[in-house]
Amino acid sequence: MKTYKVIQWATGVVGTSCVQSVVRHPRLELVGAKVYSDDKAGRDVGAIVGIEDTGVIATQSVEEVMALEADCVLYCPLPWKVEEICALLESGKHVITPCPYYFPFLQNPEATAVIQEACAKGNTNFHASGCNPGGIAERFPLVFSGWCNRIDRITMTECGECTYYTSEGVMRKLMNLGKTPEHALRNPIKMALQKAWNEPIDMIADGLGTSVRRYEAEHDFILAKEPIETAVGVIEPGTIALNHYRHIGITDAGTEIVQEQIWFVGDRKQEKLERKMDVPRQSGWRIKIEGDVNLEIDVDFPSELSQDQRVAQGLSTTAFHLVNAVPLVCDEPDPGIKTYLDLPMITGCMGSGPSVRS
Question: Whole-model pTM?
Fold first, then answer.
């Protein structure tokens, strides 16, 4: 059975799990790694991510990565650059990423155009995937929509107790945790985040055979009333300790599609916050479908896991979803942007034997 050569671009919290997963995957071969720091460059990528040596030496050189022979690049930097994505695609390498462009056709027409053009030049495919967005936000609701006939509202809620989340970029830049309200309101990533969460809304609408006629957005936050220790430093009093986003799409068919994120730090009782919020659940995800059939689907990790173990497994789900998509994305005909509406079902891979359907 065919194997695929893979490059890992960035070895942060998600990239680390990607490397570990690629090495274990029976149909993938790690052939390169792009890193950003001097202390990682020149080292075996296995040592960087805490596994046995792989024989792959990490590099900071974009030129070296571009020159490698590979089928696919797992592109995981923060922030991302569409120019880098396009250069990789044009070089003949498929790109899979947890960064935005899950369903960019309406929210990011400029990025859509340049990515599609790069795919055509390189005869390659581009796929954005992950956990949320990348699964909870769009794929799973569409799966369960098949149990329904009339759908009035679909709500995807992520409740994240982020005290042990180790990505400072995500915590402070994207989630605004530890920032002042003034900073959060003028943070340029706010508009980018709104577009990013509208993409899954658009994908669900398209999958349901309709389209969004109106978007709405709500942003609320609660401040810390005392210092809160986290994995990325102290959240000071008077700065944001709970961030609540709601992005809403009203479709032509009348269905309301809601993407909701509740990210917070401190103990689960919220005793270190200036006020409390009635959080639907302490951690994990809930998909709620309302219509002629009413469903609540909770996705979580075992309760016996510690909070840091739950965070680690949550990050791993993003990485593993990317890695498991590699063969499908590489084999998809007709170059271009591939979403869940285009690809076969992405599954885990435990072996490399032939299918009984062959």
Answer: 0.89
